[in-house]
TrEMBL record:
This is Class A beta-lactamase-related serine hydrolase. Keywords: Hydrolase. GO terms for molecular function: hydrolase activity. It comes from the Bacteria. Residues 41-352 form the Beta-lactamase-related domain. InterPro entries: AmpC-like, Beta-lactam-related, Beta-lactam/transpept-like.
Amino acid sequence: MRPGAMTLPPLATVVLLSLVVGCAGGTAVTRARSLPDARAVDALFRDYDGPERPGASVVVIHEGKVVLRRAYGLADLEKRAPATPESNYRLASLSKQFTATAILLLVQDRKLRLDDHVVDVLPGFPASLKDVRVHHLLQHTSGIWDYEDFVPATQTVQVKDRDVLELLSRTERTWFAPGTAVRYSNSGYAVLALIVQQVSGMPFARFLHERVFVPSGMRSSVAHEDGVSTVVRRAYGYAVDRDGFIPRDQSPTSAVLGDGGIYSSVDDLVAWDRALDSHALVSEELQKQAWTPPTLPGGTPSRYGFGWFVDNDGGRQRLSHHGETSGFTNAIVKYPEQRLTVIVLTNRAGGEPWTLAQYLADPWLGPPGNPGSTWPFVTLPNAH
């Protein structure tokens, strides 16, 4: 089912009221002057609610304040642990905005330039890809192949970021000349994680912890490495078959960090959103660059900046990303000028959290909005 195909209550039911919004179980947690009616929100998420279902956590942030914070269903079916706003889900491709920020921090530190050729920065990067620059990786304009194309379905040992270089060496060409087109590739963000490690002199996961998560106030977020780090309040992933929900928490590419290996909660992502808006990590100038997609040769516009899809929604800049991986499907949509962000994290394969996120955002925007306008703009590669 593609975006827009879900059956949802009419937007008219999502009226703006003054009320108290609860988290999982209806516990009151915050008060705002105007926000969507809680019953209408519950109706939107009815497929995630219940004592036997993988769940969802959702937050709406307006002008720096949490105006809606709820959770539904279970984070762990075996233990019957309920999902909460503190549950940590694997972010999948929502991780890319953090990898991009790590690169921008190195640029801000003057240890790296966006124009640097990757082959000059990263030992072991295939010489056949010598024309690829750092900004090409960030913007998916490198043309390099997705490493998942070289991982067989029978793979049992998990692939890690460092393995991506060997996988990329199996081809001696790019899809197109770097900088001339856009092709979404998880390889670019795995390579960016390796660049962070090489230039900073510390493991990528530690760099994120020390330079991104801690300064942002993200207390439980982690780039998870099995046997090295722990995910507290962990949500486990599930898929659906004819007998119901089955565990589906990992795949052979789940250990790659740069493109999708971060675990976080909607509560931590509130702190992240505030760090973005206040430019607590990178300068306003660099942040603006991250949210400006390149113009391709011939004047063709792109829709991807650094770790974010970027488009114009009724005259407003819209930032978005979706993430699909083994057992998790997530979405974030952000309107910087309106200071509005909606985040939906789910621990199940499938579903359309991007549609839910947009429906929650639309009532706040007013004319000249595009009610129910849908994204994503591309289909992501196979779950990783």
